[in-house]
Structures are given as C-alpha cells and as structure tokens.
Specification:
By secondary structure, this protein is of the alpha/beta class. Helix content is 35%, strand content 24%. The protein is built from eight helices and eight strands; from the N terminus they run αβαβαββαβααβααββ. It has an eight-stranded mixed beta sheet. The radius of gyration is 18 Å and the shape is globular. The two termini are 23 Å apart.
Length: 238
C-alpha cells in the first residue's frame, strides 16, 4: 500500500479530486481498508460470498464505510468509466482470462485514472520460492497445494502488452523482494512449520518491500489514456 500511495501522490491523483477506487479481488478487504483510511471512496469486489461477508464485518468493526459486492473480474458489474482508479492485487495470477480482466478494468476506469496492480513473474525464481518452498515442500510449505499454478504466472512484458492493448499507458514496475538472507528465510519457513514462530513473525522476518528486481513478485501502475482528440491521437492525462 505504501508504494501505491506514493504513486497516487506522485501522479497527483489524490490532489486532483479523483477519489473513487475499485479493488478487484478484494478478499477480506485488507487493502481496501487501507485505501479507505487514505480517504478514497472504495468499492471491493470478490467472487466468494463468504469472503465478502468477512470483509464487511471487519470494515464495520473498524468504523470504515466500504461498498462490498460479489462478482468476477471478467465481468465487472459496473458501467463504463465508473471509477477514478482500480487496484487488482494478488489476483491476476489466479484468473482464467487475464486479457479479459484487464479489458474490464480499462472499461470501468475513467480517462486519466490509474490501474494499480501486483502479480507474480513466471521465472525459475518464482517456481522455487512460491511453488516449491511456500506450497509443496512439507518442511517449509504454508500455502495450500495448487493455490498457485506456475504456468499462470505473468511475465512483465506480457502484462505490458495486455494493458497497452486496452488503452492503458504503462508507467512503471517495481519488484517485491524479501530483505532476508535466502538461507535464513528457508530456516524461518522451517521454524514456522515446526511451530517455533508464528506466521506473523515469519512475515516480519522476511521483511518484504519494494526493490529493483522483478524475478519473483512485482507491482506497478498504468494510466488510462484520455479519449481521442479530433486529430485522432491519444494523450495521457496530465
């Protein structure tokens, strides 16, 4: 969220009064709540009704007003140009049709609005770290088997092609990396399996943050181009 907040400030998206935001695949609402606390009018969408119920309950207990509803990214239940910004995090690597989801995101975005995302790169690094270490090896795994499918991970160039195909201008990408020594991280995963540390402590030790390398997970932003001018050219919003 700190990265997205910095991007929104840098692109002057907050100061220009662009305040409505859709969180596609919002899950339990953790990211949606951060945007709400930052002053956005947030709508969260997720295909799982039980997850939406959890998100509603948590937002209510936190004193936050967030509009939650069920739906899928391939068929967003909103009119064209409904939102100033759209976030889609930890989602694109799970959907059946990435191109269709991004087409729908572009459709509901207003011209000049930002598309904020994170996803997983399809590399040897992600295969080892996410499929093997986090998901398959009994001594280290914490995710359910097959919760991620390596073949569905998305290379950065592929994602850029998707966003540009649907009238979005790619602005930047940044890596999501752990500052923990890889061997120490493996030992921490093992300690979590053994019950010596909690999942929360594991996350603290791994200390994920913004980095230069895109080999595993990465995040970024794109802007929806404004409508064509009379001369037939497209320009990004200022």
């Amino acid at each position: 969220f700190r990265y997205f907040e910095r991007v929104l400030h840098r692109e002057q998206a907050i100061g220009r009064g662009l305040r409505t935001l859709l969180d596609v695949g919002c899950g339990g609402g953790l990211l949606a709540e951060e945007f709400a606390r930052a002053g956005f009018e947030v709508t969260g969408l997720d295909p799982a009704p039980e997850t939406i119920q959890t998100a509603r309950a948590h937002a209510s207990s936190s004193g936050l007003h967030i509009e939650y509803q069920t739906g899928v990214g391939e068929r967003l239940p909103f009119p064209d140009g409904s939102f100033d910004h759209v976030a889609c995090c930890d989602v694109l690597e799970h959907v059946e049709d990435v191109d269709r989801v991004i087409a729908e995101i572009a459709r509901v975005l207003r011209p000049g609005g930002l598309f904020l995302y994170d996803t997983i790169n399809r590399t040897l690094v992600s295969w080892i770290a996410i499929i093997k270490v986090m998901q398959e090896w009994p001594s280290t795994a914490f995710a359910d088997p097959n919760s991620h499918v390596w073949e569905k991970f998305i290379k950065p160039a592929e994602l850029v092609a998707f966003v540009e195909r649907h009238g979005l201008e790619q602005l930047e990408m940044r890596g999501i990396t752990s500052r923990r020594n890889p061997l120490a991280a493996l030992l921490d995963f093992r300690r979590r399996v053994q019950g010596k540390i909690t999942f929360k402590e594991l996350g603290r030790r791994l200390e994920f943050g913004e980095g230069d390398h895109l080999e595993a997970s990465y995040m970024g932003c794109a802007r929806k181009l404004v409508a064509q001018t009379a001369q037939g050219t497209c320009h990004g919003a200022s």
